[in-house]
Amino acid sequence: MVKAWQESTVVYGTEDILTSLCNSVTRVLTVATQCDIHYSGMVQRITKTCLKPDIGCFVLFDGGFSGLVVLNFSAATAMELYESYMLNMGMPKSELALSHTSDEVSNIMGELMNQIVGDFTGKVRRELQTHITQNQPKMLVLNKQVVLSVDTQLDKPESRRVTFYTGKNNIFYLELAIDRTEFIKLHDFEVADTLNPDEVIAQADAERNVIQPAQDKNDQDEFLKSLGM
Question: What share of the chain is helix, strand, coil (3-state, %, to 5)?
Fold first, then answer.
């Protein structure tokens, strides 16, 4: 009886969680920017998570499992995604920021990160029947690498890095650090309908004027100071 139960169980592990997160990145950014976003079929095992130049963004999550999500963009990648997003929203090109160091670029990239993690946490609730919460994304313009660690006790931490490509073949990286975990399906259940990325972005755009920016200039300076930068 035990053997039969073991053979029939469905196990959802670290790579499955990573794949779900990568699909959220692809779904949200493709809809938001109308760019062809895709990721490598290979994943790297890494020993540490880092914020890297030129723009790095991170989000901590906690609840059913704890972890850290990092996105690292080159200046060219950040500007491609920012410009595509703003033009897709109907903003005239003449009014767009000209540099990746602009606060507007950081705020938009942080907003997109927030939408990505929101899509991911929604899937976690539906598909794994557990709950995780995340903090406000921190988006930083960097000129050197900063090593990050998850602010919680992880018994067996695992870290992964995945390479993403944009429509113009610019590259950005996703890094995930979580405790080693497995979800085992005990019985069949119906998964609620998935959210439409258009609805996620439309809701975020509607709230854009009342949402606090991902990281204003003073907060960024204080955060960098706390890191000794």
Answer: 40, 25, 35
What secondary structure does DSSP assign to 185-203, as a single string? --S--PPPPPPPHHHHHHH
Q: Between 137 and 165, whose confidence is greater?
A: 165
Give dist(CA 79, CA 206) in Å, integer. Answer: 23
**Confidence label for 212 from pLDDT (cuts 50, 70 and 90):** very low
Show Cβ contacts of residue 187 under 8 Å, excluding neighbours closer than 6 positions: none
Find out whether 88 and 29 touch, Cβ atoms under 8 Å.
Answer: no
**CA 110/CA 213 separation, integer angstroms:** 8
The CATH number given to 8-185+196-226 is: 3.40.1550.10
Q: List all residues 6 or more positions away from 165 whose beta carbon is below 8 Å from its beta carbon.
A: 37, 38, 39, 40, 171
Query: Do the Cβ atoms of 53 and 152 come closer than 8 Å?
Result: no
Going by pLDDT thresholds of 50, 70 and 90, the confidence category of residue 180 is: confident
**According to the model, what pLDDT value does residue 215 have?**
46
Give burial (CB, 10 Å; 0-12/13-18/19+) of 131: exposed
Bridge partners of 184, per DSSP, are: 11
With cut-offs at 50, 70 and 90, classify the pLDDT of residue 211: very low
Q: Report whether pLDDT(7) > 80.
A: no
Distance CA 95, CA 112 (A): 20
Q: Pick from 143, 145, 34, 55: which is nearest to 100 by CA?
A: 55
pTM of the predicted model, to two decimals? 0.80
